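Technical annex B. To support the medicinal chemistry partners, we prepared a structural model of the target in complex with guanosine-5'-diphosphate, based solely on the information shown next.
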Amino acid sequence: MQRTFSIIKPDAVRKGHTGAVLAMIEKASFQLVAIKKLSISKRQAAGFYAVHAQRPFFNSLTDFMSSGAIFVMVLEKENAIADLRKLMGATNPANAEEGTIRKKFAGSIEENTIHGSDAEETAKFEIGYFFAGYELA
Ligand code: GDP
């Protein structure tokens, strides 16, 4: 079993797509280990996306991620990290495959509905950024 970290981003929460996104995740056999609704500050978003600090879209991305409620969650299944990335689809929804979450719901390369960890080390950092050990017992 492997765990990954995911966020339902503010665009999806605003548009009322949270339930539909969760349904796709559960249908794909992920166990929902933990989930919570949060509103994060721009500084908290910057800490989460620190690896992107030098990218030209960093300021806009952190504004977006702090623009409304999000759901942060920990998901579990075999091969969870790669399988969630596949279910999410490409970063730019214009390039996302049919049947993926971003193809179905994402409005733009930035407002793209869902985040998923891209590697084991990243998943560890991201889970620890938002969840304490007792929440995952
Ligand atoms: P992901 O792993 O598919 O989420 O993509 P990245 O790690 O490359 O980027 C993190 C997030 O930054 C993406 O999910 C988008 O919300 C945003 N992003 C990525 N590339 C761009 C871009 O070229 N322009 C803008 N405005 N946002 C971007």
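Notes passed to the chemistry partners:
The two ends are 15 Å apart (CA to CA).
The chain has one domain: 2-135.
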